[in-house]
Design goal:
Layout lengths: L2 E4 L1 H5 L8 H9 L4 E3 L5 H7 L9 E3 L4 E3 L5 E4 L4 H15 L4 E5 L5 E6 L4 H7 L8 E4 L7 E9 L1 H12 L5 E6 L6 E6 L5 H12 L6 E5 L5 H6 L2 E4 L5 H6 L2 E2 L8 H7 L2
Parallel strand pairs: 1-2, 1-12, 7-8, 12-13, 13-14
Antiparallel strand pairs: 3-4, 4-5, 6-7, 6-9, 9-11, 10-11
């Protein structure tokens, strides 16, 4: 059974975070299994995809979570509270930087925590989350019971230093990428099994699908592991050079030209 998985930002979504009528029509009429693998949470992704028929489990938060279409968690790979508390204290002491934390609280509610002291890039990002009841401003930032991703925003060299420092002491997965919407980079820390590649393997097992039957679409660093694992990897025209290098196919269209939908409609 063929199975298709697409990234959202800069891949299936247009750069203004919309979907064309063409993309919606192709998705909703596609006859084979089709789902997403995104850095976004269930709440964030479902808002953007409200006009789509979501019928299969979704890989969310860079792979830290797999959810059913209705948001019910199927698999969670979360960082432990004590580990996150330790390394955010270390980074604050050594680099004077504080992260954003996405996770699940004691009541199993999705939460997005941010510190009192913000850098300019965090302030810009948070403009997108006004009136979002998941978002909490914390005086003394502490980890959640289940921490799905811990994100630092800033200069690439600074984030490289933070990444090296944390990974020398803690068994965590990390992803460092250029922010697609801001003039900065972002560094994400995840559970060692919380990346898209591991989540894809778990999704395949859950759906009873072989890796060779899976086709994936993407554009950025956090898609590379998934590209290396899947049977077929397809990069959009605007993908990073490193992503194109490991892709089986590079499409002649960008995300703003409905690349994924055009490919799917040709099958």
């Amino acid at each position: 059974m063929e199975f298709f998985v697409t990234d959202l930002d800069k891949t299936f979504l247009r750069s203004d975070l919309t979907l064309s009528d063409f993309s919606k029509e192709v998705w909703n009429n596609f006859k084979k299994p089709l789902t997403i693998a995104t850095a976004r949470s269930y709440t964030g992704a479902s808002k953007l995809l409200k006009d789509l028929k979501l019928q299969y489990p979704m890989i969310l938060l860079d792979g830290a979570m797999i959810c059913a279409p209705d948001g019910t968690p199927i698999k969670i790979n979360a960082l432990e509270k004590n580990i996150v508390d330790d390394f955010i204290d270390l980074v604050e002491k050594e680099f004077d930087e504080r992260p954003l934390i996405v996770g699940i609280d004691e009541k199993m509610q999705e939460r997005f925590l941010y510190p009192k002291k913000l850098n300019i890039h965090q302030k810009e990002l948070l403009q997108n989350y006004k009136n979002d009841n998941r978002v909490l401003n914390i005086e003394k930032l502490r980890a959640l019971p289940k921490n799905l991703k811990v994100v630092y925003l800033g200069d690439e060299k600074l984030l490289q230093s933070i990444e090296s420092c944390v990974k020398s002491l803690y068994n965590v997965e990390s992803k460092l990428s250029k922010d697609p919407y801001q003039d900065c980079h972002f560094l994400t820390f995840l559970h060692p099994l919380g990346d898209k590649a591991h989540a894809l393997k778990e999704l395949e097992a859950f759906q009873g699908v072989d890796a060779k039957e899976v086709s994936v679409f993407g554009d950025s660093h956090n898609d590379i592991g998934m590209f290396r694992w899947a049977g077929k990897s397809i990069a959009v025209k605007n993908a990073l050079p490193q992503v194109k290098e490991v892709a089986n196919e590079v499409l002649p269209w960008s995300n703003d030209e409905d690349a994924v939908a055009k490919y799917l409609s040709s099958l």
